[in-house]
Design goal:
Elements (H helix, E strand, L loop, with lengths): L2 H15 L4 H12 L3 E5 L8 H4 L15 E3 L11 E4 L1 H4 L2 H12 L5 E4 L12 H12 L4 E6 L7 H7 L7 E5 L7 E7 L3 H17 L7 E5 L3 H10 L5 E3 L5 H13 L4 E4 L12 E6 L6 H8 L9 E7 L7 H8 L6 H10 L19
Parallel strand pairs: 1-5, 1-6, 2-3, 3-4, 4-5, 7-12, 8-10, 8-11, 9-10, 11-12
The protein binds zinc ion.
Length: 365
């Protein structure tokens, strides 16, 4: 697409979305002002792609015709791109650091966009190595835009610290991350047999639902052993997905899941990263989520089409002892799970009940 075509596309989009996507407009304005560190928290579909199109209006070099953006992959060449989009797990690889340094030396780089930036908060990654690589990005002195659909306010400082950013220098643009279409619930499954029965009934329920002919189930486990156990038991027809598999094997599982060749995938947290499958009907946690961020991020995969989906925690599996997850499951903060989640994810303390357009949680039904 040439610059002119991009610009008219952008203007069309902007008019369509102006009323509902204020955060995207604010982010574009920050990009155009040249703010060096920008974080946007917006729900899926809130105009994220517009942030890339913003490039045609102005760049530090003011040269519209040479501007190119590219998603960075280790093996693909993105030479000639002045705006680089990267997922966090790639951004913290030494190869990306080297790539950025070279682009910087050649003065070819205008902006780095890190999508799904909440992954930087994941303590399961090798923190020391990750911080080393993020440090390299910070010395690249390039405009950086971080995007995420979920960033609980109590984790903002942790994110800034990991990026080596000073809070007062960051432009933070935050929208409501409520996902009205999700039905939140927690069920009991203490004992192996009880948990098996719960899982089986959930999977059976989705395959019988005539309103959701393509409905899919993502079963989330706390570790690989749990995944393999479900796979071996053969109680539900499913494919397995975890970080220990090869890239090719994981890509194949995803493709089958996406195309409907398989309706259920049993996965670890690695599944939550960078995957957008709109027709996931159920997300089932057979172990406790590691954090409310993990819970929200994984259960919020569906959302583009707005049809209802369910997020279910089956209690009694592996425990990770996150106090906020405990409060959520116990209903300690609020009986309504929406109120509890909103407090945690959006610091929305004023909410007293679910809203008319929201699916009720198990405690409100
Ligand atoms: Zn409720």
């Amino acid at each position: 697409m040439d610059a002119q075509a991009e610009l008219s596309w952008m203007m069309r989009k902007e008019m369509t979305f102006r009323s509902v996507q204020g955060q995207a407009i604010q982010a574009i304005q920050a990009i155009q002002r040249g703010d060096s560190q920008i974080v946007t928290v917006m729900p899926t579909g809130a105009g994220k792609s517009m942030l890339f199109v913003a490039r045609v209006l102005r760049t530090p070099r003011g040269d519209h015709h040479r501007i190119r953006w590219a998603a960075w992959e280790e093996r693909a060449s993105v030479d000639g791109a002045s705006i680089v989009l990267v997922l966090p797990e790639k951004a913290v690889s030494p190869k990306f650091g080297t790539f950025i340094k070279r682009l910087k030396r050649l003065q070819l780089l205008d902006r780095i966009v890190i999508d799904e930036c909440h992954v930087i908060l994941n303590d399961e990654l090798d923190i020391r190595k990750m911080l080393q690589e993020l440090g390299k990005l910070s010395i690249a002195e390039t405009q950086m835009v971080l995007l995420t659909t979920t960033l609980p306010p109590h984790l903002e400082n942790k994110l800034f610290e990991r990026m080596f950013w000073q809070r007062e220098e960051v432009t933070l643009i935050r929208g409501s991350t409520v996902r009205p279409n999700i039905v939140h619930s927690v069920v009991d499954g203490r004992g192996v047999e009880a948990r098996k029965a719960q899982l089986e009934s959930i999977v059976t329920e989705t395959s019988r639902d005539p309103t959701q002919p393509e409905g899919k189930v993502a079963v989330m486990c706390g570790n690989v052993a749990g995944i393999e156990q479900i796979g071996r038991a053969g109680q539900v027809p499913c494919k397995l997905y975890h970080a220990g598999m090869s890239d090719a094997a994981r890509a194949e599982v995803l493709e089958q899941f996406r195309s409907g060749g398989t309706r259920a995938v049993v996965a670890t947290g690695a599944f939550g990263i960078g995957i957008d499958i709109p027709d996931i009907q159920f997300v089932v946690f057979v172990d406790e989520p590691r954090s409310t961020l993990d819970y929200a991020q994984t259960s919020g995969r569906r959302g583009r089409d707005g049809s209802p989906s369910r997020a279910i925690i089956i209690r009694g599996g592996l425990q990770f002892h996150d106090p906020l997850v405990q409060h959520y499951m116990d209903g300690q903060v609020a009986q309504c799970r929406r109120i509890a989640i909103d407090r945690d994810l959006d610091r929305n303390l004023g909410r007293v009940q679910q809203l008319a357009d929201e699916q009720p949680c198990d405690n409100c039904q």
